[in-house]
Automatic annotation (TrEMBL):
Gene: glmS
Domain (Glutamine amidotransferase type-2): residue spans on this chain: 2-221
The protein's name: Glutamine--fructose-6-phosphate aminotransferase [isomerizing]
Molecular function GO labels: carbohydrate derivative binding; glutamine-fructose-6-phosphate transaminase (isomerizing) activity
Keyword Transferase on entry: yes
Organism encoding this protein: Seonamhaeicola maritimus
Length: 615
């Protein structure tokens, strides 16, 4: 969490940093700050609130000139969001300034030791401890900044991506990472530093992604030197060519990123299967699966680990893998799995699902499984992310950047990748016959068009949203493949509208939740044809008898649910195994419209951050 941006070069740093912070606000947005070296001195401006609040403040507080600067957008860990706890933090001498993403776990003992040496602290943050530790090492050991950072980081336990400079040496910036991402953009006589490449994409396509336990000393005229933090060995940096475009990270005429990303799903899904699915040749080819086919075919079971929406995609995958490929699957919250001493065998395959590829718990679960000898496969969206690098093999979702904090296209593209995998393995194992396999390929290719159809219900969904926007609670019900979709629908509503919502398997309702139903309770029921349609219709009858308000997600042309429900939203017909890809769409739109009507900040819901790099 937290976004960091830095610049050293020949341009004015302020606009690059402020624009960059806006692009990184998905990483945290409870406070923001900037430090500029204006040629003579350090100018710092920081505030609780968003980057626009920082802009307003720095207009009054600082001259915005300087060719060296760092900026931060925060998701609070140590210390409440307030002006003082906002980054950047300055050392006691006033010379060193730092921004930090991560957590220094042993900050209390380090702070105690520094206090004994008469260091004082203004904030409650671990970051202010770190900058003073660096200063202390620099003074005690009489070393340059780079060396001081290295020695200090070897005393630190925790996770970090940091950028630090000394106002007396404004030709140099030091950066380091462990557990939090950090990219350095390389221009002509200039360098950009950021948590991801989006802040500098219009300036350079050349970037170095630091690996864990690496640091770099960046000198404006002398270039960049990368070293290992532990043993000081020199690392030859690998310069990547970025594929990202500016348009991909802009709203493109939509009011919110979330809405744009909902509407991008037809393209995102076809980008996901393009090059992997050939209906003419009746094949699915995925390099990461082909290269490791034996591991998959010999697997005792598949364990899926993920968090949040990605965990819901994992639950859908459990149905698909077991149904089509007949491989036993367990789906685990990464945060539980990593701490509960799970039984992991060498013939287990672990699939980690993560949009950002940076989720701390998922990363830890991967490391645990690897240490026990399991083969680990990643399903990630962000290319080159920590999870993509840590796994033995993987498949990217190719959804393009997802900036809205609430996951939308990440979910449907994760399901698409997992469906392709299940079909490929089913074919290899002979658990699907060729006509079923072909039917799946055909239907999968039609999904983007059908998602477009589903998106046409937007205006109708807005009317339903208006009716239920003031409901304090909402239930979501689904069965089989669509039980995880019910969970995902409820999560979407909760996280962006702050309405309490729960998802349940429709049949589970009788075991408790039915007590909540009265004439004020809206209940979204996924009741598309195929699967357990008749059973779900019976569940709808039960709700109706208790006067609940029913919003049915139904297959085009449905008549039975139409008679029972207060509202219906139609989606095109497809195979049951692919129905989550369509049934999710109206649920995303419903929560989006409710949140907008309630005046909530859809793209940046309170307390959340897109990339959860702390456990
Ligand atoms: C919900 C949402 C989160 C993420 C979760 C995992 O809309 O976005 O629940 O799904 O934090 O993130 P990734 O997929 O990046 O590991």
């Amino acid at each position: 969490m937290c976004g960091i941006v830095g610049y050293i070069g020949h341009r004015e740093a302020y606009p690059i940093i402020v624009e960059g912070l806006k692009r990184l606000e998905y990483r945290g947005y409870d406070s923001a700050g900037i430090a500029l070296f204006d040629g003579k001195d350090l100018k710092v401006s920081k505030t609780k609130g968003k980057v626009v609040d920082l802009e307003e403040l720095s207009e009054k507080e600082i001259s915005k000139h300087g060719k060296l600067g760092i900026g931060h957008t925060r998701w609070a860990t140590h210390g409440v969001p307030n002006d003082i706890n906002s980054h950047p933090h300055i050392s006691n001498s006033g010379d060193l300034v730092i921004i930090h993403n991560g957590i220094i776990e042993n900050y209390a003992s380090l702070k105690k030791a520094l206090t004994l040496r008469e260091y004082t602290f203004k904030s409650d943050t671990d970051t202010e401890v770190l900058v003073n530790l660096i200063e202390d090492v620099k003074k005690q050991e009489k070393v340059k900044l780079g060396k001081a950072v290295q020695i200090a980081l070897n005393q630190v336990i925790g996770a970090y991506a940091i950028t630090v400079f000394d106002k007396n040496k404004p030709e140099e910036v030091v950066v380091a990472r462990l557990g939090s991402p950090l990219a350095v953009g390389i221009g002509e006589d200039e360098f950009f530093i950021a948590s991801d490449a989006s802040p500098f994409i219009e300036y350079t396509k050349d970037a170095i992604y630091l690996e864990d336990e690496e640091m770099a000393i960046i000198r404006r005229h002398k270039g960049i030197k990368v070293r290992k933090i532990k043993d000081d060995s020199i690392v030859a940096p690998y310069i990547q060519k970025l594929q990202l475009n500016l348009e991909e990270i802009e709203k493109g005429g939509f009011d919110h990123f979330m809405l744009k990303e909902i509407h991008e799903q037809p393209k995102a899904i076809s980008d996901t299967y393009r090059g992997r699915l050939s209906r003419d040749k009746a094949i699915i080819k995925m390099a990461g699966v082909e290269d490791n086919m034996k591991k998959f075919l010999n697997a005792n079971r598949i364990i899926i680990v993920a968090c949040g929406t990605s965990w819901h995609a994992g639950l859908v995958a459990e149905y698909i893998f077991e149904d089509l490929a007949r491989i036993p699957v367990e789906v685990e919250y990464a945060s539980e799995f990593r701490y509960r001493n799970p039984v992991i065998r060498e013939d287990d395959v672990l699939i980690a699902i993560s949009q950002s590829g940076e989720t701390a718990d998922t990363l830890a679960a991967i490391k645990l499984a690897k240490s026990k000898g399991a083969f680990v496969f990643g399903v990630c969206n962000v290319v080159g992310s920590s999870i993509a690098r840590e796994t033995d093999a993987g498949a990217y979702t190719h959804a393009g950047p997802e900036i809205g904090v609430a996951s939308t296209k990440a979910f449907t593209t994760q399901i698409t990748v997992l469906t392709l995998m299940a079909l490929r393995l089913a074919r290899a194992k002979g658990t699907i016959n060729s006509s079923d396999f072909h039917r799946h390929l055909l239907e999968l290719e039609m999904i983007p068009k059908k998602v477009e159809e589903a998106l046409k219900s937007d205006a109708h969904i807005r009317i339903i949203a208006d009716i239920y926007k003031d409901a304090p609670n909402c239930l979501y019900l689904g069965r089989g493949y669509n039980f995880p979709v019910a969970l995902e629908g409820a999560l979407k509503l909760k996280e962006i509208s702050y309405i309490h919502a729960e998802g349940y398997p429709a049949a589970e309702m009788k075991h408790g939740p039915i007590a909540l139903i009265d004439e004020n309770m809206p209940i979204v029921v996924i009741a598309t044809k195929k699967g357990h349609y008749e059973k779900v219709v019976s569940n709808i009858q039960e709700i109706k008898s208790r006067k609940g308000k029913i919003i049915g997600i139904v297959t085009e042309g449905d008549t039975q649910v139409r008679e029972l429900a207060d509202h219906i939203i139609e989606v095109p017909e497809t195979l049951e195994s692919l129905s989550p890809l369509l049934n999710t769409i109206p649920l995303q739109l419903l929560s989006y419209h409710i949140a907008v009507m309630l005046g909530k900040n859809v793209d940046q819901p309170r307390n959340l951050a897109k990339s959860v790099t702390v456990e």
